[in-house]
Amino acid sequence: MKEKIIKKATDMFLRLGFKSVTMDDIACEMCISKKTIYKYFSNKEMLIEEGTEAVHQKIHALMDDVVAKNYNAIAENFEIREMFKQMFQSFDQSPAYQLKKHYPEIYAKMMANEIEDCSHMFRQNIIKGIAEGLYRKETDIEAAVNFYYTLIFSINENTQLEKDAYELEAKALEYHTRAIATPAGITELEKQLHNLNT
């Protein structure tokens, strides 16, 4: 039952907003009593925290699936972007923006985990791209990782609408790739951008 509550509540939080969904709303949607929810979660914040952790795990499992398909480094980044689009396109409000605004402590905790995981992934992507000849050998890997995640996280936490965040992320990805790409990498980037616009 606990997992079902987390799943339903998280879906509602993402669709309708973390602030606006109440414990009553969740109980009503699930046709259970509020008491049942409180048996597992002492308050709404606890439920949001477990929900964001579940989303975090799901995102990283999906990212691992994309990486396992062994695309080249640039195609891999575009595939991951597409995965995020599928996950979040039905939401009007950016979940990160809402969480930061209404539950800053939960947001800070989530970001600490995200930065660690995403840094690792961005680092692996750059190393892979250098090996493939798509990124320049002399790329300062740590600086590139820091620049990119700073851009991405800044977009997500400061952009209210999900569709606006998605468009800005595309520009950030292009900017990041152009900054470190070899001529072969630029060719691959142009191919990916062409596919994106057709």
Apparent shape: elongated
**Estimated share of beta-strand residues:** under 5%
Would you list the SSEs in sequence order as H and E?
A: HHHHHHHHHH
User: What's the CATH H-level homologous superfamily?
Assistant: Tetracycline Repressor, domain 2
Q: Mind telling me the CATH class?
A: Mainly Alpha
Short description:
By secondary structure, the protein is mainly α. It has one domain (45-196): Tetracycline Repressor, domain 2.
Jot down its keywords.
about 200 residues; mainly alpha; Tetracycline Repressor, domain 2; 10 helices; elongated
How would you describe what is shown here?
The protein has helices at residues 2-16, 23-30, 34-40, 44-68, 73-88, 95-102, 104-131, 141-158, 162-180, 183-196. It has a single domain (45-196), classed as Tetracycline Repressor, domain 2 (Orthogonal Bundle), CATH 1.10.357. Helices cover 80% and strands 0% of the residues.
List the helices and strands and how they pair.
Layout: H1 2-16, H2 23-30, H3 34-40, H4 44-68, H5 73-88, H6 95-102, H7 104-131, H8 141-158, H9 162-180, H10 183-196
